[in-house]
Design brief:
The chain is of the alpha/beta class. It is 30% helix and 22% strand. It contains 6 helices and 9 strands. The mean pLDDT is 86.
């Protein structure tokens, strides 16, 4: 398994690169990398072409993978499949950089639950909404999605649609973890951290 920090979004609603926003004295990408490294697994950071140089200078101790421009996909699926293309035999624990309140405890619970199920993916459900950007995708499932993409069989590229194609284990987010799943997309969301 490899931990992947997903940073390649456009950050248009935030107005600045979310990966480089700071909480305390650390950037959001740093915070996510540290949490994944605590799980004792290799970690890489998925970025778009505009982010590559600056993130690569900042994070010298992990792989930085740029979105594969050959894939005609948008959104988080582009980052996920770009990493899978480089690490085709690895399950991927995906964590979006704009979820800075996710804790090591939550990630550890996700990892243990996934290892006990044998399903294609393991994902949290928070207030009846799937959380596909804090989830685990098996290498087998990603090969299936990649094959469907290459055969032009993906009707949509949304992560929710991708999860509908897989056998998924869901984890109901307990009340005391709900605030940890805040996904910060706008400046007003920062007040909830």
């Amino acid at each position: 398994m490899i931990g992947v920090v997903l940073c390649g979004g456009q950050s248009t609603r935030m107005g600045s690169d979310k990966a480089l926003l700071q909480l305390g004295n650390k950037t959001w990408v740093d915070i996510a990398v540290v949490k994944l490294l605590q799980l004792q697994m290799p970690v890489c950071v998925s970025v778009n072409s505009r982010q590559f140089d600056i993130v690569n200078q900042q994070l010298l101790h992990v792989d930085i993978l740029q979105d594969n421009v050959c894939f005609k996909i948008g959104g988080p699926l582009l980052g996920l499949l770009s990493v899978h293309y480089v690490y085709p035999t690895k399950d991927i624990l995906l964590l979006a950089c704009d979820m800075p309140n996710i804790t090591f405890e939550i990630l550890q619970y996700l990892k243990v639950t996934h290892s006990n199920t044998g399903k294609d993916a393991t994902v949290f459900i928070n207030n009846e909404q799937l959380e596909p950007l804090c989830a685990i995708y098996s290498a087998t499932a990603l090969r299936l999605i990649m094959a469907k993409y290459l055969q032009q069989g993906l009707v949509k590229h949304s992560m929710h649609y991708i999860l509908q194609q897989l056998q998924v284990t869901t984890i109901e987010v307990p009340t005391h973890w709900q605030a940890n799943f805040i996904n910060c997309n706008t400046v007003s969301d920062l007040a909830n951290l």
